[in-house]
Structure formats: C-alpha cells, structure tokens
Amino acid sequence: MILNWKLGGLALGLVFFAAVLLVKPIGVSTQFVILDGILWDAVTPEVVTQEADGAYTSSNAYLAKSGGKYAKSVANPVNYSFIFVLAMMLGAFASSFLRKGVPAGEKIMPAIWRANYGDSTAKRFILAFASGFVVLYGARLAGGCTSGHMMSGMMQTAISGYIFAAGAFAAAVPTALLMFRKEI
Amino acid sequence: MSTIILALVIGAAFGAVLDRVGATNPNYIGKMLNLTNLHLAKTILLAIGVGSVLMFGGQMAGLVDVGHMSVKSAYTGVLIGGLLLGAGWAASGYCPGTGLAAAASGRRDALVYAAGGLVGAAAYMVTYPMWKSAGIVSGKALTLGAVPGARYDALLPSVSGDLIGIVAGAVLIVTAFLLPDRITARPAPAPAEWPGARSQVSDFGLLD
I need a surface site. Which of A47, A174, B45, B146 has the fewest CB within 10 A? Predict the structure, then answer.
C-alpha cells in the first residue's frame, strides 16, 4: 500500500520545505563522488591534502574545484550532506521494514522488468549496473540529479532545474515506452 | 552537532516518505515513464508545488531565510547530463536518491545499480577536465524572477521572484490535479489471465 498522491505529495512537499527552512535544499548525487573520494583517499592518502592555511585540495581536478569543497567533505565525512544520505537510507529501511519489506519476488528484479525481459538475474544486474553508471555520470555532468535539480531546483524556480527536467523526461519517456511495452 | 541531528531527522524523513509514496519501487517509476500510471508524477508535482509555495511564501513573510536557497548553475552540460540520467532512470527505474533508498529497502538490483553509480561518478571525476576544457560545465545560476535578498540573477529581472515562485508552485499543484491517471491508450484486455496473476500483482502493491 502506498500513500494516496494527495497525502504523499503533501508529505514529500513538507520534507522539501523543512529542508530549506532549517538547512538547505535536498540533494543526493554529490555524495556518490564524496564516497568515491573517501574510498580513493583510503587507498591513496595523497589524493586529498590540507594546505598550510587549513584549506583542502586534491590531486583530482573535480575534487579540487570550487575551492576544494568536495575535498573538504571527503576529509570530513561527518558533514550534513553525507549524513543526510545515510539517514535517507535508514529512513527507507525503517519504512520498508514497517510495511514488511519488499516482496520476495521483487527483491532481485521488479515485475515490470520480469514481464518484459524474463527471469535472468544476470541480465537485470548488468542493466542495473550500466544504468547506475550512466545515471551518475549524467548527474555529475549536470551538477545534480532528480532531487537536487528537479525537485529542489524547480521548487526554487531555478532555470537549471527546468532545463534538467526537460532533458531527463525527453530521454526517460521514449526509453520507457520502448523498453516496457508489456504492462503489469 | 545540531546540523548532524538535522541531517539525521530530515534525511530519515525523506527516505521514509520516498518509500511510502512508491518512489523506491521501480514498477511505479516504469509505469509513470511509460505513461500507464501517473500516480507518482502527481505525487512529485504536488510535492514540488507545495514546497515552492511554502518556501516563497515564507520568504515573503520573512519566516524563511533566503540565504538557505541554493540555486545551481545553468549550462549545456545540464541538458546533456539530464538526457543521460533520464535514459538510465527509465531503464532501471532508479535515480540516485531512490536507488540508494531502494537498496536500503531490500532490493538487490538497486544495490548493483548503486555500485554502477559509484563507478559512473568516479568516471566523471576522471573525465571532468575534458568537459571543463570543452567549456560546457559552467554558467550562471538563475532564478525565474528576482528574489529579494538572494544572491542569484533573474531571467526576468523586473518580475518579483517570490510572487512568480508562488505562481509556479500553484501551476505545479494544479497540474497534479489535472493530470490524468494514464496517457497511453489502455491495451485490449488479455484473452485470459494467468493463474495467480492477480495475487502476484497485488504483492507488488499495484492494486492499491
């Protein structure tokens, strides 16, 4: 049972508002970069460095951009945006647990995939991995994802948010129409 | 410390609500994007509209700190990135936030998606200089109207950013109400339902 769209939309809108009222608008995709940076820095500690004046920088141009703000988050993972994403996962876990979890038949692949492409786990996982790659590459190129650009951006009447949403739906709708012809 | 507590509370609320509205379920994403069930689109439009009206209304009333706004830059890469994201979003049924939330809710394919996401983000970190030298990843952060006290320029400088924000929010809310349940034509009824089809479908929460 999911929430009726009026109740669900109101609840989600109140969360967006609470975020901007108390801290800042919601965003997620940057934290994939931060986690990559943390892992990279754990293997190669010279990736992120602190300069004499306390500022952080990185040998990676992307982590070093905008005055090293990503490098700083990599060096200090206990920051608002990173903890926010971990908490989001905890919240989703708790909500799923309370509604008795994802049904067994859905855990490996969703019904809409199975109806169109059959039962192969390998096929679904390869597609999921490739999609994750393309989505995060695209999100970083765009400077944000569905939450940061589309939801938070359009909420603030950001021109970038409208451009992003137009691009995302222009690709997503034809892709879904082509890929998921069989309904469930 | 207090910002960490806020991160925990707002983050957990966001994750829980994403799960409760069905955004962590790729069936709903797929059915929204193939235009057969727009329930989730209505939810999202209403949510953005409500957030907009409350935020700009609050800013006009002086109750919301304008400094909390965070408007991203507009540049060519936003469109190209949006197209890429859209294709992968439709194919998998996950975007970055809902993919992580779905993985946490117990979906294994979402975990694989998140792993692909980490590699994709790493690939961008390495290829960033190429996009930068192509000159398509920087631009101006613009809002529709001029928001008093905000550090952003406006596309329409003579228009009140707060008022147009409330109007834009209202338009999204009205669109949520006007949007039909589905857009594509309903297919001809199947000759016979396979045994157990109905119970299986209800397991996915699609007969709510």
Answer: A174
